[in-house]
Amino acid sequence: MSANNPIIRIIENTTIPPSIPTKIFKVSPAPPKSVFGDIPVDVGPQYEGQRVRAPEMYVELGGPKVKHKFELFLIKTLEEIEDGEVIVVGPDLAELKEGESRPYAVIIEAAGKGLDPQAEGVFERRVHEFSNYIQGYMHLNQRYDIWLRVSKRSYQKGLNSFKFIGTVLYRLFKSAFPVIEKLRVIFVTDPKIVEELYPQALKVYEERDRRALGLKDEDVDMFYACKLCQSFAPTHACIITPERPSACGAISWLDARVAAQIDPKGPIQPVSKGRLIDPVAGEYEGVNEAIKKLSNGTIQRVRIYSLFDYPPTICGCFEIATYYIPELDAVGLVHRGYATATPIGLRFSQIADAVGGGKQVPGFQGIGLLYLRSKKLFQADGGWNRVVWMPSELKQKVLDAIPPELKDKIATEKDAQTIEELRRFLIEKGHPVAKKISEKEKAAEKKLEAKSEKVEKPAEVTPSAPPTAIPPIALPMVSAPQPQILSQVPASTSSQAVTIPLPGGITVSVTVPTHLTQPRGPPINIALKGVKVRIEKVVIKRGEVEKK
User: Does the record's keyword annotation contain Iron-sulfur (predicted)?
Assistant: First the structure.
């Protein structure tokens, strides 16, 4: 049914104008025999990890082609919410154009006497899990990076309205968390409204992150492991500490603590730190034991603050990818929204394919945006001093977290798009990595010069025995040889290959114009300039004394 001028409030009121179609549905009581018997497609955890490929999709919501999209869970007062409402602002699923990518927002509002506003991030991350219960409704990522697809098959089965998706989310949340007394789900598909709400959502995320930055690892006895993404990466689990949030960016240590309290048997579990093995790399005995168990023995060790030695595993929902640049022995960063290739020639999606799936890939890692503000960022491998490139958009977001002396020394796509351009930029700006680059280049030059000197300088033989023991070595004087025309080259060609025998059995082949090789006219001289001859081994043999 229609609604007149509804209001959406994130931080401030946003009134929906009458010109934008808006529908309000009421979630009906669940059928007695089956909780989801009134949903046109199957619903259950068996669909977690499902993928809807481009040829199979009916419509795409959010994703990399769309700038404005977000997902938000808000704790409200009981008076602010009408329980069981599903609101659609903009076109419903059946009214969208097949194959299109659409700006999209999902806002879930909940109320209950025992609900803590600090738990918003925890509930918000469960939207990912519960959405993937719906057959043919693929949900990836979180916050401002959400990417959803509805499959053609599910749409044809009847999944043609957001009221069904809202109903599933309503029932799953109310069932999993009895503390929730009221819940309302809002879907926004109108581009202008999504764009208007987007900055407010970002402020909510920023405030959550700010609260999480006060604690240090040394202040707590317990870390947390999140296995929410194991349906996509069975060997992966995020180890969440006060100074390293989840890779998806949605769960801080505070969020994880609340999650474990609300749902003790849920996907986020406490992990005892145990004995500290390496304070710089962040390796703990208790964490190793936990990750070994959570990965079914696949992962034996994890160093939380290392990029290269036993780095944390990753799924595919991370916000930022790191990548190693061997030519510079440095690290670059790229965020999910950056679609252009990095200096190593790979885009974010290509790097994500390489590092996802619960693998440990030295130098290549998935991290959350908040981790860039941690004082322990990559501390086992140089921290910010090792970072040399990042997109300008990402750099602007975390500019205040970059050490002042490095702000103008880390390149963006505006400064360098290739490794050679990046090398020149780093040397020009005096980045800490530049010193290593210069030292490496000087060492290579000296090595090359040393090789050249060995070739160009005559060998000096210093006999260990008295000089009379070995007679002087006389190198034979060889008269200039005459060029020889290769017989296999046809005379009709415009040029011919000529072999020139040199002392010691060496031959050099050069190509000269045919008319110069004809047996008429004055003789020709061929001078070889700038030629370096490399001698792998010199063998000196004592000659036999001629008997008289």
Answer: yes
Spatial distance between the Cα atoms of 163 and 91, rounded to a whole number of angstroms: 12
| Both structure tokens of 255 | 């969020």
- In the numeric block, which tokens belong to residue 48? 């977690």
Residue 498 resides in a domain: no
CA-angle at 524, arms to 520 and 527, nearest 5°: 165
Please tell me the chain's helix, strand, coil percentages from 3-state DSSP, rounded to the nearest 5.
30, 20, 45
Number of domains composing the chain = 3
Hey, what's the torsion of the CAs at 306, 430, 448, 456, to 10 degrees? -170
Residue at a domain's end among 150, 178, 212: 212
CB 60 within 8 A of CB 138: no
97-147 confidence digits (pLDDT tens): 999 999 999 999 999 998 888 889 889 989 999 999 999 999 998 899 899
Beta strand 484-485 pairing with 495-502: antiparallel
The chain-wide mean pLDDT, for the chain, equals 84
Note whether 176 and 205 are same-domain residues. Answer: yes
Instruction: Give the C-alpha separation, 239 to 287, whole Å.
Output: 8
Among 393, 427, 450, give the residue marking a domain's end. Answer: 450
Indicate if the pLDDT at residue 541 is higher than 70. no
> Helix, strand or coil for residue 321?
strand
* Cα–Cα distance measured from residue 315 to residue 325, given in angstroms and rounded to the nearest whole number: 22
227 with 277, same domain: the answer is yes
CA 141 to mean position of chain CA atoms: 13
DSSP 331: E
Q: Identify the pLDDT of residue 357.
A: 82
Domain that holds residue 403: 317-355+382-450
Whether 515 is covered by a domain: the verdict is: no
160 and 264 part of one domain: no
Q: Mean of the pLDDT values across residues 314-321?
A: 87
DSSP SS3 for 141: coil
Residues 384-437: pLDDT tens digits?
999 999 999 999 999 999 999 999 999 999 999 999 999 999 999 999 999 888
Residue 276 and residue 398 in one domain = no
Is residue 480 in a domain?
Answer: no
pLDDT on residue 295: 92
- Cα distance from N-terminal residue to C-terminal residue, the chain: 124
467 has pLDDT over 70: no
User: In 7-51, which residue ranges form alpha helices assigned H by DSSP?
Assistant: none
Say whether both 170 and 236 belong to one domain. no
Mean pLDDT of 328-340: 93
Asked if residue 26 and residue 138 are part of one domain, the reply reads yes
Question: Phi-psi bin for 136: left (phi > 0), alpha (psi -120 to 50), beta?
Answer: left
Q: What would the two tokens of residue 462 be?
A: 């210093």
Question: Other C-beta atoms within 10 Å of 42: how many?
Answer: 14
Q: To the nearest 10°, report the CA torsion of 418, 422, 428, 432.
A: -170
Q: Measuring CA to CA, which residue among 240, 268, 283, 275 is closest to residue 374?
A: 240
Q: What pLDDT sits at residue 211?
A: 80
* Residue whose token pair is 């109310």: 174
Regarding whether 43 and 172 lie in a shared domain, the answer is yes
pLDDT tens digits for range 285-305: 999 999 999 999 999 999 999
